[in-house]
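This protein record is not my work; I was only asked to verify it. Where you disagree with what is written, explain briefly why. This is what I was given:
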Amino acid sequence: MTTILVTGGTGTLGRHVVTRLRAGGHDVRVLTRHTPPYDVDLREGDDGLDRALDGTGTVVHCATSARGGDEQAARNLIAAARRAGVEHLVYISIVGVDRVPFPYYRTKLAVERQFEDSGTGWTVLRATQFHDLLFRLFQGLSKSPVMPLPARVKDQPVDVREVAHRLAELAQGAPAGRADDMGGPEIRTLHSLARGYLDAAGRRRAVVKVPLRGSAYEAFRAGGHLAPERAVGKRTFEEYLAERFAVTGGGR
């Protein structure tokens, strides 16, 4: 049995990774900012991080923050992992971080490079956007009578549980470097996906396609964030929505 630390282990992806690893018989430590016994802010790199990593063979890094600080968090984690003799660092990234000049993507790419240069065995898995992200986006936009969406942009949403399953597989194996990208089963326009959401939610809204400017938008329009050759996901956005609304009691 291996001791594995999962950062962000209560988040959208991390909690499913934890479940998979525990089902595989591993001793899993969950590191978050607020949940004992491994409540550590990776951006601060306090003594609790060394305690959390003591005796750990593998680290799965799922933690991220919209408030920034991911690069510093990765530096602290990698330094502590090296002190603890961790043998395998696993990181979840995003398809297109090297092609789309979007600020958050640039941060993810910088963290990838830190893992590659860590001197420790590493694995990086890039996935397309989760169904959950589109759900939250459309849920927020549909509060208004009009839903503005970037024109001529497509997406390839993937199920978070499928990504968690793959990430857990990689964590239980030898360091693999850059693993094959993982994309959802369908590439569709944002307009089509929004219509799918509205239909499932039982809402009527006008969806307006808004042309934008900038290098990031052009890269998204060009499909830099898509992985058509790696459409390995199985669960569609409509299947996700059906389950989501069945649980919450919303929708049709």
